[in-house]
Amino acid sequence: MDGKDKYIVDEKMIIAVEEDIFSRNNAIADQNKTYFESKNILCLNLMSSPGSGKTTLLEETIRRIKGQIPVYVIEGDQQTSNDADRIAALEVGAYQVNTGMGCHLEADMISKALLQLDPENGAIVFIENVGNLVCPAMYDLGEAKKVVIVSTTEGDDKPLKYPYMFQEADVCIINKVDLAPYLNTDIAILRDNALKVNHNLQFFELSALRGQGMDKWCRWLLSRND
Q1: Which H/E stretch holds residue 125?
Q2: Report field, pTM of the whole predicted structure over 0.85
Q3: Domain limits at 160?
Q4: What is the CATH number of the domain that holds 50?
């Protein structure tokens, strides 16, 4: 066997392994989806790079809606329970998943978390994925919507540099809009770049820290679960 033949064999093996991994994940994701639908639960998968403001967004969202609908959060991080502790302090169900060296959550992790949380019928379940603009978009978790969060501090070219994340998303939240006047980021260009990748994206422009735009986001959340 020459080097070329060996490469082809190895390539086929890699493809077979990847197919097996995704097949198993997708089967469990389908089970999760059936679970959510049977209990009329809205599940959102929040994805972004580190520092985009996911946890702050969740905290402010929970403060505004928890009296109107049951809320649960599955937190994904490589290490620590810092974010889950912040969410639990708001007196809602929170479960921490530590992935170790893993850069994303997978469907079986969500399934195990749901056994612990046992969310009520008609609830909203937020999944805060590991901070990463690549891998999380590749794994179906059974969610109703994938939400990508991008902050103005990251620049306006992220949708073009990480297109798969924006292609897979249903909703794009542009966070930290209050900082835009002090940055070189143009929100209109950021939005247009995202639309070049996925013209079906729904947008929310907000500042989770300052509360700007949060009312519109929360109204949408509550209306999605009517």
Answers
A1: strand 124-128
A2: yes
A3: 3-224
A4: 3.40.50.300
